[in-house]
Write a structure and sequence with these properties.
Blueprint: E1 12-16, E2 26-29, E3 32-36, E4 45-49, E5 54-59, E6 67-70, E7 76-77, E8 83-88, E9 96-103, E10 105-106
Parallel strand pairs: 5-7
Antiparallel strand pairs: 1-4, 2-3, 3-4, 3-10, 5-9, 6-7, 6-8, 8-9
Length: 114
């Protein structure tokens, strides 16, 4: 392991919260997309898990592999145009309800259009 290596697998990252967060909330901070580990106030350090999948409420119908978006109000939606957050691992009918979502982690090239 290199002496200067900090996160060998980059499964989570601690960054300064850009707003107040609660545990389990989806977060998009800079190029990071993940789920908040513990409550944090704006300006505090917040740990964001970048890998895995999570059961989170999503508004709208989903198909497996569809991009899920983070709306301005902090909720997840199937509607394109908001901030790309992750991908649906399961299909879901219309309405708002739980779905298994895998966050993109650290954004690299732009995700495919929905």
């Amino acid at each position: 392991m290199a002496k200067n290596q900090l996160y060998p697998e980059n499964k989570h990252i601690a960054v300064v919260a850009d707003k107040d967060y609660t545990s389990g909330q989806p977060a998009a901070i800079g190029a990071y997309r993940g789920v908040v580990l513990a409550d944090a106030a704006e300006g505090e350090q917040v740990t964001v898990w970048l890998n895995g999948s999570y059961k989170i409420d999503v508004a709208g119908a989903l198909t497996v592999g569809q991009v899920v978006y983070l709306a301005a109000n902090g909720t997840l939606t199937a509607t394109a145009g908001a901030t790309a957050f992750g991908v649906a691992n399961v299909a879901k009918a219309t309405g708002t309800g739980p779905a298994e979502v895998a966050p993109f982690g650290m954004i690299q090239p732009a995700p495919p259009a929905a």
